[in-house]
Amino acid sequence: MTVVLHVEQAGFAAVQDLGRPGHGGVGIAGNGAADAHAARLANTLVGNAPGRPLVEVTGSAYAFTSSADVLVAVTGAAERVSVGGAVQPAGELLTVPAGSRVTVEAPARGWRSYVAVNGLIDSASTLGSVAPDSLLGVGTRLSAGDTLTLRTRYAGLDHPHSRVPVFRLSAPRAELGAVDVTAGPELDEFGADALDGEYEVSPQSDQVGLRLLGPAPERSASTEILSRGVPVGAVEVPPGGGLLVLLRGRLVTAGYPVIGVATTVSVDRLGQVRPRDTLTFSRRTNDEAVAALRRRDSALGALAVRVRAALTSSGIGHVLDDGQPP
Amino acid sequence: MSAHLEVVAYGDAGLLVAVRHPEREQRWVTAQAIAAALARTPPPGLVDVVATYEDVFVAFDPLSTDHEAISDAIRGADLATDEPPAARTFTVPVLYGGEHGPDLADVADGLGLSASELVERHASAAWTVRFRGSPAATPFMDGPAWPRSVPRMRDPRTAVPPGSVALSGQQCAVYTVQSPGGWRLIGRTPLGFVDRTRDDLVPYRPGDVLRFVAVDRDRFDELADSLLEPDP
């Protein structure tokens, strides 16, 4: 069935997914959810495939109502969600009645929250993704008064004998803390203590990268670095001082020394960093980084299994994403 | 003499390949050939490949492969399977100077040339596309050696219009979309470069040649909304 979602309040919110990887060869960044893991968790909680479009709310509050009953989950920075005035936990599968206002408060810690709804949100796709890209001039930024069209197989819980279940799935909240980095190609050209300092996140940061104010590591080499591809998470040392940490909207090539690269797990943590936050780095080996990623991925897989069981035992297993449009 | 490859970890999901060879051209040819070989026969878990002047950045999914397997695929890549496609030439009309090339006089001055000498040299050269970078498949090109490097702006512009023809160092680029940028603007083409329905966005590839031709305001206006195409 088709459901209309009415955006009631939007500070900075956009329709988002996991981006368009694989186009670096033509200078296009992958973009997508800044905290991709939180986005995967939200979609998994509502029974969607992890990469379905959802709403990314950045550093602000967001509220919506729907024209029919929907299944909703909020992950990332948000600690709780208000549904029709009742406080509900974040990181949980919530049944939302038609017309009930769902409100995600501006985050007290962390920066981005993700609001997933069971089904498929219609949104214009470019190169296989709905993710905003300001350079490509694509994306759907949301304002109060906007509507989103959702196609879903969920039609409410209408079993005469079962009450509306309260799910206890408890997806983890966004992790904060030190940013894990592995060695970058030019690390040896800097002192061993190059990343030991504390950095302040400049408000001039955006989806392209975080500007960090703090100690500027001293480079021993002076060889020119020709423009070359740079990974998301690269910790660059620009000539103007401080550090630059590249996020998913980065320019694909650059010519600055790279002293470290944030681990795949930590790139998502960077998506939760607030302007003026203090940031520190922890050195990791590639093996440690991949082990942490594997642990996180198995936890996500285990959550998907629990969601499947919960939806099936509630008599609504048919809402699970089977890869076909609802 | 064949090139030597230095392959190092570039994060938990990437590798950086630095091509070592005494000749610059050979470094570029090898870097591009690695990218072409990986595109032809992608190893499992490959996510993205960015080949530039003498480096290749390879991104992969660390849950389905690892540094060693991707490194093996790079070192084992068959670089000589096909001849590279023949270079094509694209003619790009440019309205030099004025509001569309606000840095023309200043750049010429820095190079010890008059504005018309700079235009003459820029428009008479063959500019080879070395790679397509950000934003949106911008062609990074080199051509004639200037007497000195063209310095970038101290304070980059926040919005460079699409079609702007820009110089930096010994390189030339054409901004394909509006974006911030610190390169020096000497003119603007009315042609559109980007077609968002194309998977590779633009018609040119590394190795193709752009030739610039000066046009006047009337011709510039006539060509507005035309798309860039290779010469017949």
Give an overview in words:
The complex is a heterodimer of chains A (326) and B (232). By secondary structure, chain A is an alpha+beta fold. Helix content of chain A is 14%, strand content 29%. In chain A, a hairpin with a 7-residue loop joins strand 15 (199-201) and strand 16. The mean pLDDT of chain A is 93. Chain B is of the alpha+beta class. In chain B, the strands form three sheets. Chain B has a seven-stranded mixed β-barrel. Chain B has a four-stranded antiparallel β-sheet with strand order 1-2-4-3, covered by helices on one side. Chain B has a two-stranded antiparallel sheet with strand order 8-11. In chain B, strand 9 (164-168) and strand 10 (171-174) form a beta hairpin. In chain B, helix 3 crosses helix 4 (115-124). Chains A and B meet through strand 17, strand 21 and helix 3 of A and strand 3, strand 4 and strand 6 of B.
